[in-house]
């Protein structure tokens, strides 16, 4: 808090009063900045279920501090959850029997409630699952962010992926994709993010969930190519003093 207020006091302006004291005599603290964070999560529905993917890096500020953080977990018996944002705010679950739609609704209430208390959980959560319903096996994919904004979709990307991967998914996704086709599409998105997102690393994890259950595959790397002309001379043709 003192660091955040330093720019006000240095200029001579009056600093705001300190936060109220807690019942135990200390100061009430709220998370103001996420410190150790994970980047984009990609997820989409395919013919038999839902596939989800992300890298295993975690950044301490702008430093890629941790290289083997798994951000996709099985939740209950019917769902997978992938998380972007602050690692300390991630919420995992035990072996409950709730369906993906119910878990998504619960997470939406939790995130919106914390936002209303000005004590948000600094995450974007992707929830995918398959559960038997009145029409047979029903696939579900949704997301919720740190202020409680939530939606369902056939394909979802958080973080940088919301800008760079969504156009690819809109152009190439179709409902009857096989698992192999879904993997290729997800890997294409992950490569684009690796090339363009400084917080991404070349160590990825893919998971799937079907009516038979969830499978989280071991991390692996993708073949990359850094010889593109724009990578070799990124400032060529740029306008400005940089």
UniProtKB/TrEMBL annotation:
Biological processes annotated in GO: proteolysis involved in protein catabolic process
Keyword Cytoplasm: yes
Domain of life: Eukaryota
Keywords: Cytoplasm, Nucleus, Proteasome
InterPro entries assigned to the protein according to its UniProt record, in alphabetical order: Ntn_hydrolases_N, Proteasome_alpha, Proteasome_beta4, Proteasome_bsu_CS, Proteasome_sua/b
Region of interest (Disordered), residue spans: 1-30
Main location: nucleus
Location(s) in or outside the cell: Nucleus
Pfam families: Proteasome (PF00227)
Entries under CDD domains matching the protein: proteasome_beta_type_4
GO cellular component: nucleus; proteasome core complex
Subunit and interaction comment: The 26S proteasome consists of a 20S proteasome core and two 19S regulatory subunits. The 20S proteasome core is composed of 28 subunits that are arranged in four stacked rings, resulting in a barrel-shaped structure. The two end rings are each formed by seven alpha subunits, and the two central rings are each formed by seven beta subunits. The catalytic chamber with the active sites is on the inside of the barrel.
Protein name: Proteasome subunit beta type-4
Source organism of this protein record: Dichanthelium oligosanthes
């Amino acid at each position: 808090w003192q660091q955040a207020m330093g720019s006000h006091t240095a200029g001579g302006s009056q600093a705001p009063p300190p936060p109220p004291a807690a019942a135990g005599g200390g100061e009430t603290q709220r998370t103001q900045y996420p410190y150790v964070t994970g980047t984009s999560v990609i997820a989409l529905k395919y013919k038999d279920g839902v596939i989800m993917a992300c890298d295993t890096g975690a950044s301490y500020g702008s430093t890629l501090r941790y290289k083997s953080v798994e951000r996709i977990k099985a939740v209950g018996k019917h769902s997978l959850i992938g998380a972007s944002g602050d690692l300390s705010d991630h919420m995992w679950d035990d072996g409950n029997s709730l369906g993906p739609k119910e878990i998504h609704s619960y997470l939406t209430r939790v995130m919106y409630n914390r936002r209303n208390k000005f004590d948000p959980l600094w995450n974007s959560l992707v929830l995918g699952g398959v559960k038997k319903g009145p029409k047979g096996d029903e696939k579900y994919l949704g997301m919720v962010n740190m202020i409680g904004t939530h939606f369902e979709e056939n394909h979802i990307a958080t973080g940088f992926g919301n800008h760079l991967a969504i156009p690819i998914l809109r152009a190439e996704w179709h409902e009857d994709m096989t698992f192999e086709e879904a993997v290729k599409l997800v890997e294409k998105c992950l490569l684009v993010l690796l090339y363009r997102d400084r917080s991404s690393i070349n160590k990825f994890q893919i998971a799937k969930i079907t009516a038979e259950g969830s499978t989280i595959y071991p991390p692996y790397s993708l073949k990359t190519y850094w010889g593109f002309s724009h990578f070799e001379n990124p400032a060529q043709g740029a306008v400005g003093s940089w």
